[in-house]
Amino acid sequence: MNLSHIGIAVKSLETSVPVFEKIFNVKASEAEFVEMQKVNVRKIHLENCDIELLEGTDQESPISKFIEKRGEGIHHVSFNTENIQGALDKIKSEGIKLINENPVTGADDMLVAFLHPKSTNGVLIELTEPK
Ligand code: ZN
Predict the structure, then answer these.
(1) What's the CA-to-centroid distance between 56 and ligand 1, angstroms?
(2) Ligand 1 centre and the CA of 63: distance in Å?
(3) 95 C-alpha to center of ligand 1: Å?
(4) Is 122 exposed, middle or buried (0-12, 13-18, 19+ CB in 10 A)?
(5) What is the pLDDT, as a whole number, of residue 95?
(6) What is the CA(78)–ligand 1 centre distance, in A?
(7) DSSP character string of 31-52
(8) CA distances from 99 to 10, 57, 82 (A)
(9) How far apart are CA 28 and CA 31, in angstroms?
(10) From the CA of 113, how far away is ligand 1's center (Å)?
(11) How far is the CA of 128 from the centre of ligand 1 (A)?
């Protein structure tokens, strides 16, 4: 596995994107709406990983709920895997709780799945498999 991206929950892409563009001197990707999570996503592509800026579009969005509870900040860390279902089955067999037992389609049309933060010291870990 290798680091895919770091997901950051922001209140407003409009105000946050320019900050990250300045820090990394990179233009963010065009906004993408991910229906299932009710989020707008813009990515800062770096050499070895991306920064994924996430803005909830709805009170029911997990990102809106996260910000309400904990404020803006790092929401999840994401790792690439070649075989996401195999990785999930292996991790589950080791007794680690999963949020998604089967991968779903996330941003960039990638297969994604989350592990349960109760099993991972409060860190929300996402696995991805590029399509
Ligand atoms: Zn992510």
Answers:
(1) 13
(2) 11
(3) 23
(4) exposed
(5) 97
(6) 6
(7) PEEETTTTEEEEEEE-SS-EEE
(8) 22, 22, 19
(9) 8
(10) 9
(11) 8
CA of 26 to the centre of ligand 1 (A): 19
Average pLDDT over residues 55-82: 96
Measured in Å, residue 21 CA sits from the centre of ligand 1 at 18
pTM of the model as a whole:
0.93
Residues sharing a CB contact under 8 Å with residue 51, sequence separation 6 or more, in sequence order: 5, 6, 8, 20, 24, 43, 44
8's enclosing H/E stretch is strand 2-9
* Contacting residues for 62 by C-beta, under 8 A, at least 6 apart: 37, 38, 39, 56
- Per-residue pLDDT tens for 7-44? 999 999 999 999 999 999 999 999 999 988 899 999 99
Predicted pLDDT of residue 36: 84
Distance 131 CA to ligand 1 centre (A): 15
Instruction: Report the alpha-carbon distance of residue 67 to residue 45 in Å, rounded.
Output: 24
